[in-house]
Write a structure and sequence with these properties.
Mean pLDDT: 93
Number of strands: 13
Strand order of the largest sheet: 4-5-13-10-11-12
CATH class of one domain: Alpha Beta
Structural class: alpha/beta
Shape: globular
Helix content: 40-55%
Number of helices: 16
Bound molecules: pyridoxal-5'-phosphate
Low-confidence stretches: none
Distance between the termini: 62 Å
CATH architecture of one domain: 3-Layer(aba) Sandwich
């Protein structure tokens, strides 16, 4: 297994996303000339010379099977079994929506902290160690703090995370358990992020989503690689993913393109559609109004993990949705809560608010004819519902409380069947 990881490094420099400026492979994230984000560049000939479908398939059962596409050198990257989450062929949800070929990429069961963020953090902290950082940090809407704290603990790095003070209890507990320093900031995510930018410049810490962001964000490409491999080395026709900063969305697109570039899959257009919560939808708003800039908004939604009012990669996500003939749609909080029932009842998957907005948007895109029933569609479920239980409390049935006696059970069963029948009659009437 370790043998498959001894690839020659293939990443060569950081480049500006606007203009032609180039930078060395250090902990920097913005272009000094244009203030545009920096992006990792690769030598694709070097990747091509080292990869094959067989070699990847024989690699570790984690994101590190795609190591030549990731910006790390170490032969022993941090590996807690992140990635290779199930790609599930949907039958019941697909039928309900009228789709023929729907797949669910289920990062609600990603390791170690049950969200897609484990992918980006595994890459960022591996790179942080290579760059000599001993303290790592992040500005988080919740999942990122869970992930950074857990993976830093495993890697023996000191950790200090910053979260908005009003986060869901499950997200806070799910960070504290790893015993990092937790700063709960009285403000929203965008304020947390601004504070962290100031700290990153002065404290010499590795902030996974600030000064390490070019490396961090590359981890999201594995969401594309895995889907292509799990579909039998082919690309889907259409993907639907949630948008917060927009990073994940842009990297899924980049991942598909890279697989084409090195000849691992055949080229074909992949339509990329995005989901935002209506209470925080700066990218969807720009998309629908035909603008090419994203005006910041103040978030107000239960989908806290995707509530970023000033999205760093918003314009790049816009560009991709437009050029791939995708669409960016929103879901209201009520529709998001409906999404829980739909995905849980039809597929047995309990996703968090971000995932539900994706399901709600998937439904809208089918109903408005923007998704063709014949298309092979992959919907990305990025987080786990057990972390955000308060979002659905009060919307679910109560358990039937009974005595430990057969007749008590039988009475309750009869009552519940009558209730069901009544509900059915109401539906039919
Ligand atoms: C962070 C997050 C996202 C979106 O991430 P971006 O790359 O910032 O767009 C989506 N879903 C969940 C559950 C997240 O935690």
């Amino acid at each position: 297994m370790t043998q498959t990881l001894s690839y020659k490094p293939t990443f060569t420099k950081l480049v500006s996303k606007e203009g032609s400026a180039e930078y060395p492979l250090k902990a920097i994230h913005v272009c000094e000339e244009t203030f545009a984000p920096l992006e990792v560049a690769y030598d694709y000939e070097a990747i091509k010379a080292q990869v094959s479908r067989e070699k990847i398939a024989q690699g570790p059962n984690s994101i590190w099977r795609y190591k030549p596409f990731l910006p790390v050198e170490s032969e022993n990257p941090i590996d807690l079994g992140t990635g290779m989450t199930p790609l599930i062929k949907s039958n019941r949800l697909a039928r309900r929506l009228g789709l023929k070929h729907l797949y669910i990429k289920n990062d609600a069961v990603n390791m170690p902290t049950l969200s897609f963020k484990d992918r980006v953090v595994s890459v960022a902290l591996t790179r942080a160690k290579e760059l000599g950082f001993t303290t790592v940090s992040c500005a988080s809407t919740g999942n990122l703090a869970n992930s950074t704290a857990a993976i830093a603990a495993h890697a023996g790095l000191d950790c200090c995370v910053f979260i908005p003070a009003d986060l869901e209890a499950g997200k806070i507990l799910g960070t504290l358990i790893y015993n990092p320093t937790v700063m709960a900031v009285k403000g929203n995510y965008d304020q947390v992020n601004r504070l962290c930018c100031e700290i990153a410049n002065t404290y010499g810490w590795g902030f996974v989503n600030i000064n390490l962001r070019p490396y961090y964000s590359e981890g999201s490409k594995t969401l594309a690689f895995e889907v292509a491999e799990q579909l039998g080395w082919r690309l889907p026709d259409h993907i639907v993913a949630p948008l917060a900063s927009g990073s994940l969305f842009t990297k899924i697109y980049k991942g598909f393109q890279e697989f084409v570039k090195v000849g691992l899959v055949e080229d074909k257009p992949v339509r990329c559609s995005g989901a935002q919560a209506e209470g925080c939808a700066p990218i969807a708003k720009a998309f629908k109004e035909g603008r090419d800039f994203v005006a910041p908004v103040k978030p107000n939604t239960i989908a806290k993990s995707i509530a970023i009012g000033n999205p760093a990669d918003g314009i790049y996500a816009l560009e991709i949705a437009r050029k791939t003939n995708g669409y960016i749609e929103t879901a209201t909080d009520a529709e998001i809560i409906e999404g829980i029932k739909l995905l849980a009842e039809t597929e047995g998957i309990f996703t968090e608010t971000a995932g539900r907005s994706t399901i709600a948007v998937l439904k809208k895109l089918v109903e408005s004819g923007r998704i063709d029933p014949e298309e092979t569609v992959v919907v990305y479920i990025t987080g786990n519902g057990l972390k955000t239980q308060e979002a659905v409390q009060g919307y679910l049935c109560e358990p039937l409380v009974i005595e430990p006696k057969l007749e008590s059970f039988e009475r309750a069963l009869e009552r519940s069947r009558t209730l069901e029948r009544l509900e059915w009659q109401q539906v039919i009437v």
